[in-house]
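Human: My hope is that you can spare some time for a protein that puzzles me. I am handing you a single protein, as its sequence and its fold in token form. Could you go through the record with me and say what the backbone is doing? Take your time, and here it is.
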Amino acid sequence: MIKNIQTEEFTLVLSGGGALGIAHLGVLHDLEQEYLVPGEIVGTSMGGIIGACIAIGMREEEVFEHIERFSGMFNWIKFSFSGNAVVDNDKIAGIFDSMFKGKKMGETEIALKLIATNLRNGHKRVFDASDDIYIKDAVLATMAIPGIFEEHIIDGDVYGDGFLSENLGIDEAVYEDVLAVDVLGKNSFHNVMPDSFFKTLNVLEMFEKSVRLLIYNQTQTFLGKSTKNIYLLEPATKGYKTFHFHRAKEIRALGLGLLKSV
């Protein structure tokens, strides 16, 4: 158990990772059991969605119910035949409207920071309470994987997924103690090469592994430069794909019990 962290005196950082981010919920379940509440939450992409839910006062069980309800992709995906992305955000935006109920970034119970990337200049953009915008808009920005989800425009700037800048937002933590959950950490990829009979599957496996390695090395750079007290949890997500929302229960279980290691 975390012996050195006190309630409201630490930053909780949740990484991006698509469906792999459901593992965050296992950690959040254990935090609730220990009555540990962070002073702030920093989230990227899927970690941003879950972090925003917790920041407005949702319990972990309630967040999981939302994810299970929309685990069938066609419940929240609307394919687009124009623009720069495969998925139109209309359905997702409607879901977020019902979840966040018109709350703005400054109206959370726990301080919230969501990381996105400005697609015009490549700069990292951190949305927080100083921004007079709806949580829904910041979430749509942080999760907008280029080419997959439609980019999101806020005050004239075009934003995409925060993983392009900082997938594990430890640089944004204000507290010295940081509990960071990285679902794209060292336990997210196999140490063997793809070996399927079908070349197409091998190519797809290599592409996904390459992306995970790229993000992993990005995170290692941030970790190497940080002077914070970082308690790093890396769920074993290597057996799952970033689109495996239908395996939500299994992925959530990957985060359970990890607090005992720090």
Q: What stands out?
A: The radius of gyration is 17 Å. Helices lie at 23-33, 46-55, 60-69, 90-100, 135-142, 199-225, 248-253. Strands lie at 10-14, 40-44, 78-79, 87-88, 111-118, 124-127, 152-154, 157-161, 177-181, 229-233.
